[in-house]
Amino acid sequence: MMCRHPNFMIGVLLTGLLCVTALVSLVWTPHGFDAIAIADRMQGPSMGHWLGTDQFGRDVATRLMVGARNSILVGVVAVGIGLLVGVPLGLLAAIRGGWIDELVARGSDVVFAFPAIVSAILITAILGPGIVNAIIAIGIFNIPVFARVTRGAALQVWGMEYARAGLAIGKSGLGVTRDHVLPNIASVLIVQATIQFAVAILAEAALAYLGLGTQPPAPSWGRMLFDAQTLMTIDPKLAILPGLAIALAVLGLNLLGDGLRDILDPRLRAERIG
Amino acid sequence: MLIFLLRRLLVLLVTLAVASLAIFVILEVLPGDPALLILGMEAQDDTLAALRAQMGLDRPAPVRYLTWIGGLLSGSSGISHTYAVPVSELIGERLLITVPLALLALVVSTIIAVPLGMFAAVRRGRLGDYGVMGFSQIGMAIPNFWFGIIAILVFAVALGWFPSTGFPGWDAGAGVALWALVLPVFSLALPEAAILARVTRASVLETLGADYVRTARAKGIRERRVLWGHVLRNALIPMTTILGLQFAFLLAGSIVIESVFSLPGLGRLIFQAVSARDLVVVRDVVLLLVCFVVVVNFLVDIAYGVIDPRARRSA
Hints:
Strand content of chain B: under 5%
Order of helices and strands of chain B: HHHHHHHHHHHHH
Largest sheet of chain A: none
Largest interface: A-B, 44 and 48 residues
Structural class of chain A: mainly alpha
Oligomer: heterodimer
């Protein structure tokens, strides 16, 4: 396993690191994430502050840890919205075909016409900036992604003899979907979910950078980069560390997704949208 | 072909109609009275009523929607209340930054990605392939705005080669203006190039195994011509789709990149308009961005239909 799928192993390691960091931050962090100590501001790494401090003397390592939790929250909920709404729509389109299929396809077109950042700006215009609204915007974008992937994969299963046989022995469309379609498309969905998770983390970071996501003082990697930009000539580490955290998390999830695809079914190709 | 074209055109129009309706409805439920916002809290009731009438806010929503769309179709847009100029003028100015930015990024990412992807495909399973794909994975993981920040840090602050932020305007001369766009263009282009290199590699690999490639080689055509003439040409088909999709992401990405480099493009405009509640501007800019995406996708579909006749039937 280790030798045959080195990418997958790196993916598991990085994703594991992300999850463990987030979990640990729930029970323990080196300092309080909003503990301000102006006297200690913009220090380099030390025993007390492993990665130094920011412009308010807050511990950077702590803020990165809590930021990991934040990113995971966004990823889980945004992908969850996409799965919960998109998968049933895709399954329905595959079973019924006809006008329902057409409706789902055209609805997807409309949603895809709004890049996630644009719909986030619109939603923010109504509800105000905040992490919940950022999650909603990213989640809405995920719905057609999963609807399309589900529909395509489900249609393939419906073309199989065992699915037809299910209908022939008197199972309902719903029954065949539950017994044959879903188990067979699960691996496609898992791979796509991993990739969308990475896309969601990138999108939230961009929104937070623009001031549309997580609001201060709650730490978010994207927001930390925004704050660091004005200070980067004085303290470049503040502009480097959060970006590194985003890149490693996304890299890990992408490698995990690719590796899972190779392992679960080499013929599968997840659609990469984002 | 004609039926295919008409069908795609119909889909385009329906998508735009639904999208414009969605934008209108979303902004309609927005709390806050634009007239009150312009005049301030101490406004007299009759002035308020007069302004509301002037802005057309007293008319029912369906009428206002149709007025908006009708106005756009006849080429007249509303007046921005923060800038006091027609929205079309405002957008026209900003497009001169956003569109060159996105197009240049598209060109740069293609120039970088296609040779790299082909190189990786030809060297499949060897060191060169692993190298390119490794860089591609890293490139995909780096957020473009972080790339921009690091680029400013290295090339503007430390080396002083480029201006760190801002845009001198095209009046300052094309050379100076383009120089200011170099870092933003590369920040947008490199993460996209990473995705595109993967797509190129995959589709070149698929074509390399085709019968006509073996025939071309058997005829004694030089390897170089086989690659560029036969393989790349056929591999371009799936890449057209990706390029179309990329353009939408580049436009969206330019909103963020414009913020990083303080460029006065569409992204900055929509941003300022949202915070100033200048909804006339917001709805037009959003609709324009949506139009870009939908029209580019339409063109990609058409191109696809022209290149590959099989696509016409399945659509």
